[in-house]
């Protein structure tokens, strides 16, 4: 199993007045690995659901989505009509705001407590993100009969997902997205997610971390030229936004840091390996066994 060691360092905390964190999780940008890994040692509330309303017929026909809706209704004693992060957040806000760390596919404009929390997000090359999102959909819906273009037109897959997430799903706007991204404390490229995590565990003084990929797209399919053209067509705003947003990416190389000896490591696997739990914390002696086990998986 592929894994990466994330080491904590000593740092001058520029965000010392921030109370907890909010992670704006754009779908298929490595966010589940980040949020669950941090959540091992930072009490975490994950806002479930898609970032906007999807095709109602699709949701009603999906047994997987209906089960998630029923589970959430039972867990939080709420009444959901759809698997939508905005609705779920509004109905669980009294719970989520008591947690030091919140994450989820919650669009930027919905969350109003951003100035009080350390805010961060991860962006990904739009074509790579859209391809992964499409293949992930096929992985979870093997009986799908819609073409890729139909999936976008019906908003089962959201066109211009990144731009919409930081502006509006009804009227995605690059300029609005760029202005909103400037309000976020830390923006990282997916390729630098390990640098973001190093910074976060240093700020929050969390243990070192063993990072493994979660919620990976395993479905393999060589996309046709026509499908790639559809992806480019329905993500044109995202392609332009990503190029301009790079100027706002946090420069982790400029952070002054010192070695901070820490003898503990946190790990979240997503599977109940440790006495029925999916995560645990190990000391230096125990972690050697963990490394060996991961390398054999």
Structure characterization notes:
This protein is of the alpha/beta class and 297 residues long. It has a single domain, classed as Rossmann fold (3-Layer(aba) Sandwich), CATH 3.40.50. It has helices spanning 31-39, 56-61, 63-76, 85-96, 126-140, 148-153, 161-165, 174-181, 193-203, 225-233, 236-245, 284-296, and strands at 3-6, 9-11, 21-24, 44-47, 101-104, 118-123, 186-189, 208-212, 257-259, 264-268, 279-283. Helix 8 (174-181) runs parallel beside helix 11 (236-245). The chain starts with a strand and ends with a helix.
Could you say which structural class the secondary elements and strand pairing correspond to?
alpha/beta
First-last Cα distance = 5 Å
The residue ranges in which pLDDT falls below 50 over 5 or more consecutive positions are: none
By CATH, the topology is Rossmann fold
- Can you tell me the CATH class? Alpha Beta
Portion in beta strands: 15-25%
Q: SSE order, as H and E? A: EEEHEHHHEEHHHHEHEHHEEEH
What's the helical proportion of residues? 25-40%
Q: What's the domain count?
A: 1
Strand order of the largest sheet: 4-5-3-6-7
Features:
297 residues, alpha/beta, Rossmann fold, five-stranded parallel sheet, four-stranded mixed sheet, 11 strands, 40% helix
Summarize it.
By secondary structure, the protein is α/β, with parallel strands linked by helices.
Helices and strands in order, then pairings?
Blueprint: E1 3-6, E2 9-11, E3 21-24, H1 31-39, E4 44-47, H2 56-61, H3 63-76, H4 85-96, E5 101-104, E6 118-123, H5 126-140, H6 148-153, H7 161-165, H8 174-181, E7 186-189, H9 193-203, E8 208-212, H10 225-233, H11 236-245, E9 257-259, E10 264-268, E11 279-283, H12 284-296
Parallel strand pairs: 3-5, 3-6, 4-5, 6-7, 8-10
Antiparallel strand pairs: 1-8, 2-9, 10-11
